UniProtKB/TrEMBL annotation, chain A:
Protein name (database record): M67 family metallopeptidase
Matches recorded under SUPFAM superfamilies: JAB1/MPN domain (SSF102712)
All residue ranges annotated as the MPN domain in the record: 2-126
Organism: Halorutilus salinus
InterPro entries: JAB_dom_prok, JAMM/MPN+_dom, Metalloprotease_DSAMP, MPN, VirAsm_ModProt
Keyword annotations: Hydrolase, Metal-binding, Metalloprotease, Protease, Zinc
Domain of life the protein comes from: Archaea
Keyword check for Kinase: no
Region (Disordered) residue spans: 79-98
PROSITE patterns membership: MPN
From TrEMBL, chain B:
InterPro entries listed in its UniProt record: Beta-grasp_dom_sf, Mopterin_synth/thiamin_S_b, SAMP1_3, Sulfur_Carrier/Prot_Modifier, ThiS/MoaD-like
Protein name stated in the entry: MoaD/ThiS family protein
Signal peptide feature range: none
UniProt organism field: Halorutilus salinus
Amino acid sequence: MVSFTPDAYDEVIDHAREGKPYEICGVLGGRHDGDEARVEFVRRVENVSETPRVNYLMEPEDQLAAIDDVEERGDVVGFYHSHPEGPRQPSETDADRANWPRHSYVIVSLGRDEPFVGSWRWTGEAFDDEEVVVDSD
Amino acid sequence: MPTVRIPAVLSETGGSRNVEVDGDTVLAAVHAYTEEYGSELEDNVLGNGEVKEYINVYVNGKDVRDIDGVDTQVGDGDEIRIIPAASGG
């Protein structure tokens, strides 16, 4: 399970909406302890993919700076990115490039309906669907 | 000597670690690490003598792809960091 503070949850959705029609991305910060993960804040990272409508690639030095920022305040819980036109699930490209075992990969899917925030834990070999919970205020 | 800083996700011990190694380039430093600790890190980071596509290597916070790649010079006090790139579709 991964839980979000309300502010962090709103932030990933706001970021995804602002970035549409392009994919956006960032680092999730908070507490990461085994199966339990709590996102308390997020750090946006520039997407430098050459095909940003359908891919993301974190700008390398910005990614490093973001990780350092997060680790000053807590743990790297994982990463988030958007699917401006869906789908809700990780794409084949997401699975091919995932390389942070035990971390959460959050996808904000925008489509015709309300935004959907899903999360998958990368085992090192596959994505395991995990429950997303928003803490009460 | 430069220091190689490895995040937990690439560490065979499961924890992050900082290791001082010999070497005056990134490549030499990685090879020195391999001599001491085995090839797992090198296998994860290098392919065909270059940094693998979805791995980032930094010297003092600068992406080595923007310097001289694996031939980037390093010396006393320099920090080599290795971070898996976050990317997808």
